[in-house]
Amino acid sequence: MDVVKIRLQQQAHPFVKGTCFLYYNGLMDHLCTACADVNSKEPCEWFARPGNFTGTMDALFKISRTEGIRSLWSGLSPTLIMAIPATVLYYTVYDNMLCWLREKYNQKSHWIPLVAGSSARLVALTIVSPMELIRTKMQSERLTYKDIGLAFQRSKAAEGWISLWRGWGPLLMRDMPFSAVYWTGYEYLKANALQRFNQRETNFLISFICGAMAGSVAAFVTTPFDVIKTHRQITLGEVETIKQIRGHNNGSMKVTENCGCNTVITERRDMEIRSKRSFGIMKELYEKKGFRSLFAGVVPRVTKVSFACAVMISSYEYCKLFFKKVNSL
């Protein structure tokens, strides 16, 4: 689902139009960014992946058919490597901060899980952000670890080590509100469920249902920031490739677009694939693709996140209760 979600979001990626050829005066190097025949039914070899998905199931079948079923698990290795430290940090910081705030302030204050959740997410995502970047890049297109390494080298040479945290801002804007909404909703739903069923402690079923409901709402609300994060991270290596080609000469770059019988030549100092500010990307998506583009991939995102939240929180609560009983013996 994560691969499908990223591919759906990538469709609106503000890359150069499909009928463009980039060339540079001086040596007149050229770079083809699309298929030569725009009407061809064959997949574009430059991208080597399907596009123009109409929905979640359409993307699922096209990716499987074109790239193989294994491509749906792209980025699994960095995901697993990232999941362990991220989850341990996240839940540890959240639980400790939640207990500390409840002891210091009112036990029933609704802002406490909001602050605790946001703070825990800030710590966790800052540490694992480079692995998140690798995962997103691998899921956005069919790449090997060698290709990822080359992209990192180009990015590091152009921007330094800070390039490893590309997309950290949008990631922060997505995950901190997500955690705030999720934990506030989860603690509220859990408290009401315990009161309704007259229970002192939660159980697996209550945690599972409350986690799924809170996760669904939080995932839907923060989808626009997830779209922006994806757009920022999949540009890894693209900007640097253009800069390297342009660096062979000091001339200005030109873009040629074929529009029927006319050829329009425009000079541009900055490419469309240039890294943009988060709200600049949001504005561009809204103007070019409409409001729906900000919620691209919302179905697979909500499906994946709600189930993941349900499984993680119910397992976490169950283990807490289990070890609490063991330690009390």
Spatial strand order of the main sheet: 2-1-3-4
Domains counted in the coordinates: how many?
Answer: 1
Radius of gyration: 23 Å
Helical stretch tally:
11
Identify low-pLDDT runs. 14-50, 239-243, 248-275
The largest β sheet comes out as: 4 strands, antiparallel
Describe this structure in words.
- With 329 residues, this protein is an alpha+beta fold.
- 62% of the residues lie in helices and 6% in strands.
- The chain contains eleven helices and four strands.
- It has helices at 2-10, 56-67, 76-104, 111-140, 145-159, 168-196, 204-221, 223-233, 238-246, 278-289, 298-328, and strands at 20-24, 30-32, 253-259, 262-267.
- It has a four-stranded antiparallel beta sheet, with no helix packed on it.
- β1 and β2 form a beta hairpin.
- It is globular and about 55 Å long.
- The model is unreliable at 14-50, 239-243 and 248-275 (pLDDT under 50).
In short:
It is a multi-pass membrane protein. This protein has 329 residues and is an alpha+beta fold.
Give the key terms.
4 strands, alpha+beta, 329 residues, globular, Bm2246, isoform b, mitochondrion inner membrane
How is the secondary structure organized here?
Layout lengths: L1 H9 L9 E5 L5 E3 L23 H12 L8 H29 L6 H30 L4 H15 L8 H29 L7 H18 L1 H11 L4 H9 L6 E7 L2 E6 L10 H12 L8 H31 L1
Antiparallel strand pairs: 1-2, 1-3, 3-4
Helix pairs in contact: 1-2, 3-4, 4-6, 5-9, 6-7, 6-8, 7-11, 8-10
